[in-house]
């Protein structure tokens, strides 16, 4: 049985690899080549990566108990946590910085919150590289418990779902929203520019970036000459959708694999 930890952290890698394989221009390819395994140089900033279940759950081809997309009417309806990633300013990031074994007991008191706000949205196999990103958070975060607790706290403090709802960007399978409007709403609320990742014209991921003291900073890197700078326009068209999660049961999930065609404007 996959440990809670494995589902929380390592799922990120497997799902991204899957995305990369499905879509040549997808983020998975870039992520694969931007990861610096075993890098011990101190990171530059944090990215809080949030997933939009309405988009992510469309990838569900089969169900399993670890996949929150399969919770029917209890499936998540707000942005959920994908991870808190220590990144470098040059667009790469460290992974697997220590060989420390993950101990699920250390975070047992956070179990319910993690199940709710940091669920897996796939049935991917856990990676054996434990705490891939989390182990690289030193010297800001030293241990497993504080890594998860800090991530939850940042997530609660910067409620992207609320900001978008209050700006009128509510989940819809019919509406398209201006990408610039979504970015502005986040900028106005948090004072920094987020990074959006889209799949077939739908918002799949939204990242908030933070200095090491967790003050918001821009995600998009300003300097030139970086081969892997991700900008919101790299995968999102000018008008994007924020699909509602069709709370299909396990049976019908099998039949909901096709994408709603999106405007691939860019
Ligand atoms: C975010 O805000 C929404 C809308 O106000 C609320 O329903 C939700 O519980 C909040 N999420 C968190 C994690 O606080």
UniProtKB/TrEMBL annotation:
Could you tell me what this protein does?
Self-incompatibility (SI) is the inherited ability of a flowering plant to prevent self-fertilization by discriminating between self and non-self pollen during pollination. In many species, self-incompatibility is controlled by the single, multiallelic locus S.
Q: Which organism is it from?
A: Rhamnella rubrinervis
Which family does the UniProt entry place this protein in?
Belongs to the RNase T2 family.
Q: Point out the signal peptide segment.
A: 1-24
Official protein name in the record? Uncharacterized protein
Which GO cellular component term is one of those annotated?
A: extracellular region
Tell me one GO biological process term.
RNA catabolic process
Q: GO MF terms on file?
A: hydrolase activity; ribonuclease T2 activity; RNA binding
Q: Keywords on this record?
A: Disulfide bond, Endonuclease, Glycoprotein, Hydrolase, Lyase, Nuclease, Signal
Stored SUPFAM superfamilies: Ribonuclease Rh-like (SSF55895)
One Pfam assignment: Ribonuclease_T2
